[in-house]
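Protein record

Derive tokens from sequence
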Amino acid sequence: MGHEPMQKEDKKMSVTLNPDKEVVNTIREGLKRTGGYCPCRLQRTEENKCMCKEFRDQIADPNFEGFCHCMLYYKSLKD
């Protein structure tokens, strides 16, 4: 009695910067110009503040692996 077996496996993940330093530098310059808003989006809303809501939602998805919208960050799944 008491403990139930785990139904799902916990997946490990990490979020890293794009390995292409030129992309990282370009996006960081854009972030400076926009005051921290995604330079790839026209609207400057709270949802578009870097790290944007879209990518935070993708990070929360245990099956998502890939780049954020502007290619600054990459979420990888590690077994």
